[in-house]
């Protein structure tokens, strides 16, 4: 059984990015510049923004964080996005979610120029994904594809089952897997809360990709022997036997499933580790499109 090491692959991808950035700077060009917009003081969001700052620094990017109070009006936030859109020194922009309840998330996301939408949430970029055109790829689904590609896991003609249909992971991941491109060309089934006989459907998968948002939902009975299992979920659950009082787990019950499958991503240390690297890849792409 192979543990698919996301931490190792993330470092590999970031090294590739850093090498390219260094070559651009050696040519006298400016560094790629990512802007992060955050409204409020949600702890998880603030932690993620700090992680973005750390990772951008590692690869030689500039990073600007635009932090606003939760009381910011929708109009003021849209004006801030518009300012970033028109700043030619900024290559990519992401808005950290969730936003305060009085702000329409879709209005804000759609306000970002598609050429700077490195989170790939804008309808224009999602449309390119559907059509198979060149564009940004959603970071988490692309992280899954990078893991499959770099671990040389064959997808062509394979039966792939995606558990979860969110707009952020499930749907775009299914679209990437079904593309007529190298490292894709799979036969894809999407399972969700209304799927009948989900265990039986999952147990037919050569590659089972889980993004259902339920801790350790997928047990051994959902998994075909020698399947590849990709766990996108991440949860913090109470554990009184742990020093911290909690443990981190995914949507897959690793202790059971790892004994049955051919390869599996751990949580933490799997897909999540590569997601950040893929966000950086999109930012580099946005930068290069301007050169």
Q: Any descriptors?
A:
about 290 residues, Rossmann fold, 2 domains, six-stranded parallel beta sheet
Short description:
The chain is an alpha/beta fold.
Your description of this structure?
The protein is α/β, with parallel strands linked by helices and 291 residues long. The protein folds into 2 domains: 28-113, Rossmann fold (3-Layer(aba) Sandwich); 139-272, NAD(P)-binding Rossmann-like Domain (Rossmann fold, 3-Layer(aba) Sandwich), CATH 3.40.50. Helix content is 40%, strand content 16%. The protein is built from 10 helices and 11 strands. Strands 1-11-8-7-5-6 form a 6-stranded parallel sheet. A hairpin with a 7-residue loop joins strand 9 (235-238) and strand 10 (246-249). Helix 6 (139-150) crosses helix 7 and helix 6 (139-150) packs across helix 10. The N and C termini lie far apart (44 Å).
Structural class: alpha/beta
Largest sheet: number of strands, sense, barrel closure: 6 strands, parallel
Q: What is the terminal separation in angstroms?
A: 44 Å
Helix and strand pattern: EHEHEHEHHHEHEHEEEEHEH
Number of strands: 11
CATH superfamily of the largest domain: NAD(P)-binding Rossmann-like Domain
CATH architecture of the largest domain: 3-Layer(aba) Sandwich
User: What is the gyration radius calculated from CA atoms?
Assistant: 19 Å
Indicate the percent of residues in helices: 25-40%
* Percentage of residues in DSSP E strands: 15-25%
Strand arrangement, major sheet: 1-11-8-7-5-6
Predict the CATH topology of the largest domain.
Answer: Rossmann fold
CATH top level label of the largest domain: Alpha Beta
Uncertain parts: none
Mean pLDDT: 97
What overall geometry do the principal axes of the alpha carbons give? globular
In DSSP terms (H or I, runs of 4 or more residues), the helix count works out at 10
How many separate structural domains? 2
